[in-house]
Backbone:
């Protein structure tokens, strides 16, 4: 290996720059390789002229480790196998990607992505016979094969901080405060930060709930003498009758959002004597400086990914298991999103605290 490519793909999160830094440190210092950073995910290799920049030790001398976002840029604009063209048609542009890789005379690629984006890039690499190693990142923490993905810890810290900030208002105004958090189809962020932030109700897509169950829990809290309550709801939670709560963005794209609003109205009807307010936290969960855990994870992943490349162990994703860094086959990691197990330990912990998590009555 002499020339290594690195790219970030899919939604940004805290800790991406820390991974890129670790990749460069290891590749340059230990192996003496050149590292090229591909801009805007797969687009950098598909665009002509090619969009990339050389990354060296100097690039990271200014504290990039501490910064949110990705210095390479990223996108989730379209699947290169079925790429949306300006005229409304779709084209297979996978060979543009492969051709871009070859034009840069790269020997291998480190891909920092979530479940969906890593799946796409791994198929692109397969197509071109490109040696790839994956690094899991996503605030949703829904990648198979790893206990943690980069960005998750910081997102949970942001949500916990938000609950710490909502609680005084809830207490002062005797209100029920609902916080809608991200997570796509999984409840990892909601359950982790709901426990950390002392929520009375945590709703996750993996467990069904009833509005009566929530109402009973809130009434119970009020009867205990506390005049306020906190509810955390994951964006992927459906309405009581099972409909998706989605909203259309300005560009017409359908995204999650709306379940918090739905709950606010539903609870206002059931608890007319209690004021209810909703906060939708949104992309705040993805930005900001990575916390200590994400920096540690990102650094471990970056170093290990380069070592896998050096050993010619392609088609693998670095992973965190049993208190250490390891790797798993990419096929195992990209089979689809990893949900929270409904009978998993954290749901038990939340219920042990008296939190309503659905199904079982409080
Ligand atoms: O996958 C990360 C994530 O932030 C999800 O939690 C959320 O549903 C989605 O991305 C938002 O996507 P976008 O930034 O494209 O609106």
Residues:
């Amino acid at each position: 290996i002499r020339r290594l490519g690195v790219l970030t793909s899919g939604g940004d999160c805290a800790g991406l720059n820390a991974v890129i830094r670790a990749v460069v440190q290891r590749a340059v210092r230990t192996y003496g390789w050149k590292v090229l950073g591909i801009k805007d995910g797969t687009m950098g290799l598909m665009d002509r002229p090619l969009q990339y920049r050389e990354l060296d030790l100097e690039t990271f001398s200014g504290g990039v480790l501490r910064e949110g976002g990705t210095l390479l840029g990223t996108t989730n604009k379209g699947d290169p196998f079925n790429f949306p063209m300006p005229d409304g048609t779709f084209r297979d542009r996978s060979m543009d990607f492969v051709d871009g890789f070859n034009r840069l005379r790269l020997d291998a690629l480190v891909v920092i992505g979530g479940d969906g984006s890593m799946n796409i890039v791994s198929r692109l690499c397969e197509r071109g016979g490109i040696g790839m190693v994956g690094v899991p990142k996503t605030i949703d923490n829904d990648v198979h094969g790893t206990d943690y993905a980069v960005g998750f810890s910081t997102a949970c810290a942001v949500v916990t901080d938000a609950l710490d900030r909502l609680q005084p208002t809830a207490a002062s105004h005797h209100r029920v405060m609902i916080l809608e958090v991200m997570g796509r189809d999984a409840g990892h962020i909601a359950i982790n930060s709901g426990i950390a932030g002392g929520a009375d109700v945590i709703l996750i897509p993996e467990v069904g709930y009833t509005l009566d169950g929530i109402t009973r829990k809130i009434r119970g809290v009020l009867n205990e003498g506390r005049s306020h309550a906190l509810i955390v709801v994951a964006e992927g939670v459906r309405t009581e009758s099972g409909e998706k709560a989605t909203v259309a963005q300005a560009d017409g794209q359908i995204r999650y959002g709306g379940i918090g609003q739905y709950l606010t109205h539903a609870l206002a009807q059931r608890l007319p004597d209690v004021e209810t307010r909703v906060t939708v936290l949104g992309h705040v969960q993805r930005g900001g400086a990575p916390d200590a855990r994400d920096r540690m994870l990102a650094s471990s992943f970056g170093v290990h990914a380069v070592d896998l490349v050096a050993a010619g162990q392609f088609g693998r994703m670095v992973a965190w298991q049993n208190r250490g860094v390891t790797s798993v086959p990419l096929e195992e990691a990209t089979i689809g999103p990893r949900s929270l197990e409904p009978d998993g330990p954290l749901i038990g912990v939340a219920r042990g605290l008296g939190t309503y998590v659905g199904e079982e009555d409080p």
Summary: The first helix runs from residue 16 to 30.
